């Protein structure tokens, strides 16, 4: 631990110097003959960039950096972890997994690195860190914690064996620790579900979780330097969510106050509290799809004073005005949606009837499970004053065409792709998602019940003039 502590101090001294100045760093990606490499995304630590490939099949990012950052490089369906340092250009070449067959791993591409940061980035291709299986959630609390701590020590020792920059090693050791602690925050719900990996709410099932809770509280450290690490900030938000719990049907106001109480008892540094409350407020607005904080505004005003934060919250709240009942549905640009024959479809042509929209994809099992129910719904309301529209967000149009034809899918079938206007305009981050529009093309629901839900028929039957 002494060695890790020294490395962490070394890291802090290094990043403190860098934070005083911003540096634009060039990242170049050569796609080679990877046919799906038409654009790339770069995300992480406050960075979100998208660039299209040029005629030479290259993508260039100019990334403003104040300190070394972990980023996720997305190309097609793949995501690779990379590390970018201020003032150190990095060149990446996409290589096939099998040179003879020209085949690629579409989940994690084989990358070749060139530049000063190349040794660190090659580390990502070589390192094999141990992950605890979901079955450990079946263990009792003290035993799980012991297994987690053993895993952290083993992984940190493995990191130390690599010949890479000391400051990077220090950050990697922190990553290992707080990623493991983030998994610990899921123990209550995972233990309840007997290790079934049921992601979702933390239920109050009556079991005493004091061992886990006390451990998590101990790890909430009021340290401004540590707070700069994204892995630590993510852990803090996850830990406080676990400690605060979920109340019944999700009372967002009560949840906000519960989490704020834990944060203020754990942290006294104004900058940390300001950061935390800002994220909490944005989550509240986005989760509740609200254009106001209501009674929570005074709590927000007490802790958040930065002009850019307040402006960001104002914009986030204003964005939900488009979701309000009675607002016009965003139809998208001409040609944004195409039918099975490749013809452009004008969403404005749907006016005059109620519209039930299903946003789905062929690879989405819950979406496919709703299709038989959607067909039954279409039969029930056939000849009535309602239109059923399915919008696919599949990356590969062919996958969608094949399934529509094979399954003889009914209603209006359209393809929009992953960047379809309905996805971007309405911040869809999970499918299936259903919408209900009135006869004037105005919103009734942006999160309508599913075809399999009995509430759907009740809602539709209550529509005047159906």
Please, could you describe this protein's structure?
The structure is a single chain. This protein is an alpha+beta fold and 466 residues long. 41% of the residues lie in helices and 17% in strands. The strands form three sheets. The chain has a five-stranded mixed beta sheet with strand order 11-10-9-12-13, covered by helices on one side. The protein starts with a helix and ends in a 5-residue tail after the last helix. The model is unreliable at 1-21 and 195-204 (pLDDT under 50).
Which properties best describe this structure?
466 residues, alpha+beta, 4-stranded mixed beta sheet, 13 strands
Number of strands: 13
Q: pLDDT under 50 segments (min length 5)?
A: 1-21, 195-204
Q: Into which percentage range does the β-strand content fall?
A: 15-25%
What kind of sheet is the major sheet?
5 strands, mixed
Based on Cα principal axes, name the global outline: globular
Rounded Rg? 25 Å
Please report the distance between the alpha carbons of the first and last residues: 69 Å
Oligomeric status of the shown chains? single chain
Strand order of the largest sheet: 11-10-9-12-13
Mean pLDDT: 87
Topology of helices and strands:
Blueprint: H1 2-19, E1 23-30, E2 39-44, E3 47-52, E4 58-65, E5 69-75, E6 78-84, E7 90-95, E8 110-114, H2 118-126, H3 141-160, H4 166-184, H5 187-192, H6 210-218, H7 224-227, H8 230-244, H9 252-266, H10 270-288, H11 297-303, H12 307-319, E9 354-360, H13 365-380, E10 386-392, H14 397-406, E11 412-415, H15 421-425, E12 433-437, E13 443-445, H16 454-461
Parallel strand pairs: 1-7, 9-10, 10-11
Antiparallel strand pairs: 1-4, 2-3, 2-5, 5-6, 7-8, 9-12, 12-13
